[in-house]
Amino acid sequence: MGTRKGDPVAEIDLTQTTTDEPTIVPSGCADFDEARRLLRDHREDEALDRFELAVESASLAQVRTAAAAYTAALLLGFGRPWEVDAFTDIVRERDAVIASYLDAAARVQLDDPHGALALVGESGVPAASDDRWYPISVAAVRSLRARALASAGRLGDACREFDIAIDESPEAPELWESIARIAADEELDFDVAPYVARLPERALLQVFGWLYGSPLHGVDQIAEACWLRFGPTHALMAAVGNLASRLGNARALDWTVRLQQAGGRSVPILDRAETAGVAIDERVRAAAAGALLDENRGRAALEDAALVLADEQIEQLAAEVMTIAPEVLDSYVVAVATSTPRCLALATVLSDHDLREPALSVLVHGLTLPGADDLDPSQFDLLVPIRARVVLAAVAEVAGDDEVVAILRSIPATT
C-alpha cells in the first residue's frame, strides 16, 4: 500500500489479522496511529493533518521521525515538494537514509535530477533503512535513482538501474511506479516490455493496485505489455477494467472490445460515460459508442449526459452520435430538446443530415415550448439558416402543416 496521489514514496506498516483485515500496530502515539488508519483508508488529506500533529505529540523519537517522514511523503504526493525539507530536517536527526530518500524525491519533482542523484548516488548498491515504522528498501531507492537518471537525460543508465532492480525485486511496487512514470513521458523512447517479461503473473493484482494513482499513459503501457504477455487472465482483466474507464474514449473502447472478446463483464467505455468527472462531451461520445455493446445502458448514459450539454455543443454532438450509433440518436434528441433554441439547433442538424421528418418533429416541438414567442427573427435565422428552412418548409408542406410553413417562410434571411 502507499500514498494514492502523486509519488507514493512510502510503505505503510500494516500487518494482517486472521480475517485479512489490515490492523495498525500500536505505536504509543494516538495521532500517529490514527493517521495511519486514515492513510490505509485513502483519506490522505486528513492523514496529513494527523501526521503533522504526531510530529509534535509523539514522545518516542522513532515515532516522531516516522511521522515527519510520512508528512514529507504525503506532501510529495500532493505535489508540494518545496514544503518537504522542514520535515526531512527532523527525519535527518535520526535517520539520514530516509531523509536523503525523501529529499531526493523532492528534487526530482522540482526538476533537479542532479541534486537527487547527489543524495542517492548514481550507481552501486544504495543505502536502505529497516526503520520499524518507515522502512526504505533498496528497490525503492533504485527506483527513485532510475527516475532521476531518466530526468537527467540518461535513459540508458536508468534502464540499467531498472534491470538490476527487477532482478532483485521484480514485485517491488516502487519499481513499477517509477516504470509507469518514465513510460508516461512521451519525450522518452522507453519500452516497458523487457520489464514486464520478468514480472511474475502472481504479482499482477498487487502491481496494478499500487499503480492506481500513477500516470495513466504509463500504466496503460504496462497493461498493454502484460496483456500481450499473459493474455486475459482474471487478475489482468480486473486490473484493466478498473484502469480503462479512466483513459480517453478511444483507448477505453479498445480495452472494452478486448474484455468483451475475452468473456469479461466490465464495459469500461460505459463506465466512463457514467462518470461525473469526465468532460460532458466525452461522456456523450462514450455513451454512444457503448450503446453498440449494451444498448439499454448506453441509452441511459447518453440521456443523462446529453441533458446537461451546453447549447453550443448540441449540433456537433448530434452529428457525432449519428455517425457513431445512429440507432440511439432518438435518445439524444429527447434528452436535448428541452428548449426552443435547442430544438431549432437540433432541427437544423437533422435536416442537414437528411433526417427530414424527425427534423420537422423537433422543430414543431420547439415551437410549442414556453418562450418560443420570445425568440426574435434574427435568433431564429441564426439557429435555422435559410438552407434548413427551405427543406423544413417543403417537408411541412407535404405534411399539411400550413402554420409551420408560414412561420418558416416569414423569417427573413439576415445573411
Structure description:
The chain is mostly helical and 415 residues long. The protein folds into three domains: 1-136, Serine Threonine Protein Phosphatase 5, Tetratricopeptide repeat, CATH 1.25.40; 245-335; 337-415. 64% of the residues lie in helices and 1% in strands. The chain is built from 24 helices and two strands. The protein has helices spanning 30-40, 44-57, 61-77, 85-92, 96-109, 113-120, 138-151, 155-168, 173-183, 193-196, 204-210, 216-230, 234-244, 249-261, 268-273, 280-291, 295-306, 314-324, 329-336, 340-352, 356-368, 377-383, 386-399, 402-410, and strands at residues 14-16, 22-24. It has a two-stranded antiparallel sheet. A hairpin with a 5-residue loop joins strand 1 and strand 2. Helix 7 (138-151) packs parallel to helix 9 (173-183), helix 13 (234-244) runs antiparallel to helix 14 (249-261) and helix 18 (314-324) runs antiparallel to helix 19. The longest helix is centred in the N-terminal third of the chain and has 17 residues, at 61-77. It is elongated. The N and C termini lie far apart (64 Å). 46% of the residues are buried.
Walk me through the topology.
Elements: E1 14-16, E2 22-24, H1 30-40, H2 44-57, H3 61-77, H4 85-92, H5 96-109, H6 113-120, H7 138-151, H8 155-168, H9 173-183, H10 193-196, H11 204-210, H12 216-230, H13 234-244, H14 249-261, H15 268-273, H16 280-291, H17 295-306, H18 314-324, H19 329-336, H20 340-352, H21 356-368, H22 377-383, H23 386-399, H24 402-410
Antiparallel strand pairs: 1-2
